[in-house]
Amino acid sequence: MRPVRAIVRRAIEAAGLVTLPAREWQRLREAMTLRNVHRKDVVEIEELYRSFVFPDLPRDPARAEILHNLHGTTVGEGVHIVHYLHRALRVGGDVCEFGCNEGATSRLLAHEILPHAGRRLWLFDSFEGLPAPGEKDRLIDDIAGTGSMAAYQGDMRAHEEQVRDKLALVPFPPDRTRIIKGWIDKTLATADVPGTVAFAYVDFDFYDPIRLALEFLDRTMPAGGFAVVDDYGFFSEGAQLAVDEFVAARAARWRMLMPHPAAGKFCILERIAES
Predict the structure, then answer these.
(1) How far is CA 112 from CA 57, 88, 109, 165, 223, in A?
(2) Burial code of 192-202, b = ≥16 C-beta within 10 A, e = fewer?
(3) Is the pLDDT of residue 269 over 60?
(4) What region does 99 belong to: left with phi over 0, alpha with psi -120 to 50, or beta?
(5) Helices (H) and strands (E) in the chain, counts
(6) Mean pLDDT value across residues 26-53
(7) What does the alpha-carbon distance between residue 202 and residue 94 come to, in Å, rounded to a whole number?
(8) Is 108 strand, coil or helix?
């Protein structure tokens, strides 16, 4: 029986998709082997969090592969998302992601709420990449070496079909999915939004869209809900500023929690009281 990699190579080349020299195929095989080896690291990391930080983190053998394939999100942040999502499921409401990009984190959210038939997944994204930065967005981590905040406009663009492909891997029912395309200042002003939100992942990078998402959650999230906000203290200064201003103005209703620095650059907001 021929090795699977040889069959795959011949099939790809026969289809005219790509022809690589033998040495390049060797490098590709080595990279794939190394990636599969590190897949086991995810299991170890999750178990360490379960042992020392989140003892009630639910077990799911299928989760490791999804955590392993997150893009731009650390495994530590992924574990935090899972933990606080499951805590939030104690209250009523749907699950939202603000800034879903190509859907790697959407897939994680969908996988975790799949058994909860009454929950819908709302995914908000412009699918036009990053917007123009506002006056409160100052570059603190030049992740792509562009030299300016304005140069990131239109970057990190994904397509709606990429998200749907990720959700199909779960598989998450299309009738429980709402993908809302457009800029958040316009989409949140329509009637096509969830009435109650139990959990949200906010990954909008810049001050204005994060502020708008948090103000929406202040109107729709009951006490006991949680939001994880990505890029707190990273990339754009506006992300942290939006969160800090929001919590300071609503200290009676919201509490901010910080992860261990090794987990990544994000924060957790807990809804502690109704308005």
Answers:
(1) 12, 12, 5, 17, 21
(2) ebbeebbbbbb
(3) yes
(4) left
(5) 9, 7
(6) 75
(7) 14
(8) helix
Please list the residues that pair with 60 across neighbouring strands: none
Domains in the chain with CATH codes: 61-271 (3.40.50.150)
- The predicted-structure confidence for 81-102, as pLDDT tens digits, reads as follows 999 999 999 999 999 999 999 9
Closest CA to 98 of 80, 121, 73, 116: 121
- Alpha carbon distance 150, 134 (integer Å): 9
**Cα gap 75→70, rounded to integer Å:** 7
DSSP state of 69: T
The C-alpha atoms of residue 243 and residue 249 are separated, in whole angstroms, by 10
116 close to 90: Cβ distance less than 8 angstroms: no
pLDDT in tens, 122-143: 999 999 999 999 999 999 999 9
Residue from 90, 48, 42 nearest 67 by CA: 42
Sheet with 177-181, strands from edge to edge, namely 177-181, 121-125, 94-98, 197-202, 226-230, 266-271, 254-257
Q: Which residue's entry shows tokens 């709420």? A: 113
What is the total residue count of the chain? 275
What is the pTM assigned to this prediction? 0.87
CA distance 64 to 78: 10
Residue 33 pLDDT more than 60?
no
